[in-house]
Amino acid sequence: MERNLMQLREKFVCELKENGRSLSYDLSREDHRDVFFSQYGGEEVFKRECPLLYDALWRKSGAGQQERLDGYLVGPRDCMEVSDIAYDPNTVVSTNVTGRYTREMLGVDLMGKFMDITNGQILESMAVFDENITDIENTMKVNAGRLIQSDDRELQTQAEFFCAEVNAQGELCAQSTKVYSNILKVEGTKYIVKAVTVESPKPKDKSHKYTELLYDRDADRGETADYPKYTGVRLALGQDVYVKIHIPAKITIELNDEFEFIVDEADKIKGIYFKDFEMKIWSLDNGTVVFNKDDLAKNIIVTYNEKEKNKITYEFPSDWEHLMKMKIVSAVMLADFSCILPIKCKHGSMKYEEGQVTIVVSSDLDTESEDPANEKVKKIHIKFGCLGKDTRILMADGSERAIEDIRIGDLAQNMDGMPIRVTNIISGMEAEMVYVKTMGNKEILMTEGHPVRVRRDGSICTVRAVDLNGADLFLTKDGEEELRYIYMKPYNDRVYNLEFDGEEFLYANGFSVGDFDMQNHMPREKTTKREYSFDTKPVAEEMRKLLRLYQENME
């Protein structure tokens, strides 16, 4: 039985290789079922110890899947992966495993092993659990002195994500996804990779904290962009408006002199393991957006010289062929960037057969490794094309007055057309503001926390300026207006707010906004916590049992 199980696990790993970097268990298949339950002591043990989760597995809820529309991917996705393996022969071997979900999960177990499969060693293991989350991460680190020295070494990470959520019918659903990464990193104590040079994405302006990208707008006064603006990124399809994701990427890889790339003209992408390649951006607010690689072979530019076999450059098309609904877009669209490049290489002496080295270019690298195969870059800041000085307030007599010229005792007009007396004027300095412009050419600068009236998903509500999204309809004195631009704008000037006898809505530059009292009572952070329809404590207890069973049955 043990031999048969080992064969099944080897078969499962082969299937992972064929399907890319991750694979969800299909419990209708006997081989998948045997491999899955073996990690917890067998199906009968799982059923006895975790009856709620056992039943939930048969109501499996699929991972967040992207739709396809005219060749474009649509929307964020769930993402479970080994983000990088870093090797430093003098200090530490490190691997990061992350899971990011498009919706909040009731609970997520993250379990895994970090192995030196060349020498048959389990270097490290992990088993962690978290409740009511969209994001989970764990790092496994091993002192390099523990490794058996050999000419070459293959490091492997296998991780298991077991998650539970509640479906639309209020039923508990569960699923399990296996993630696999198999990476040849070193030859003895030498690095294979000499250098990774990222030409893009990176800030062209050295003063920039992030890589600044402009969509459908020019740079404002005092603002610089790192790349020419991307135009025509909006696409209206039916009743929804989408944004085309554009991010440039150009990466050069240089191997040490004794190694060379394996470049086959028949490859979809020269020198890269196509199935394992992935490029993406992600944030907790916007989810994970992946580069659509379906037609990459037609569009990628590869620079490779037969006389310089240890150097290659990949330039990817800036259009990711990925659409995102405008309702996801906000004034602060800050995202991490990552490019996983699994490259084919070999030792120039032909002593070794083809090997795989994974190049990781990411803004999320956080390891102690000095391995040149890992290159850290800046986060991506996408700006779409904040009440500031010169904002004009509608007064009781129907006139408009600049907010800095209003005095205590003056009469403004509220949304109901009634006069309201100014009892206090609050002033301060702001370095950055939220800038909004509507299709009707109304524009306003607001601090991040300033309350604004909008129609969202058919209902009128009040949101903070920083929480506005591209699908909001703004309530103005001329009716509802669609958004044209929203982004953070450098300001470095004085801001003003007005206080009245009670909380009031007034018109500022034609927008319906709240006063100082209302701003102070607005929630400071968006909340995505959801109410579940049953007691979650037994489920959490069962998921902790799973961790214990996994540790007890780990090889």
Automatic annotation (TrEMBL):
Classification of source organism: Bacteria, Bacillati, Bacillota, Clostridia, Lachnospirales
Domain Hint span(s) in chain numbering: 384-478
Q: In terms of domain of life, where is this protein from?
A: Bacteria
- The protein, known as: Hint domain-containing protein
Instruction: Give the stretches traversing the membrane.
Output: none
Which GO BP terms, alphabetically? intein-mediated protein splicing
**What is a single Pfam family found in this protein's UniProt entry?**
Hom_end_hint
